[in-house]
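Lecture 7 notes: from sequence to structure.
We start with the chain below.
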Amino acid sequence: LRALAAPVDPPAVRRLADGVASGTVPVASGRPPGFVVAGGLAGQAVADEVALKLAEVAGLPAVPESLVDFLHGPAAVVAPVVALVTSDDPNRDALATADVQHLSWQPTRDAGLDPIAMVVAGQRLALAWAGALGVDPDDPKGLAKVTMTR
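Predicted structure tokens for the same chain:
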């Protein structure tokens, strides 16, 4: 919200565009049993969004955790971990013992814009998994574009 509420200078927007374009999305073969999505310094909000996209778009179960919370408990979970951390995140090395899939992007060095780049990297991962699993991301199972309420 800070990125939307505060003025953002054009160089920062260019860095965001470069960061989003630079991301890589490694996808393993086969169907994983589920994911733990560990958000780095941006934390829980980014992990929540990426876990939701893995479920909605690719039909994969995913549990969101902030990286700090993950390292203090669920690190023993036997599931692939999607780590949304930059190369300079001080907690990155602590993930060395887990089955970790790091998503990469070029950081903007702007606390209001980096989470956007992280979410886009996670959305690209969900799209890549949908393709690998033969799931149509434009017609996800059980998700309607319009929800009728009364």
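Points to note: The chain has a mean pLDDT of 77. The first helix runs from residue 2 to 5.
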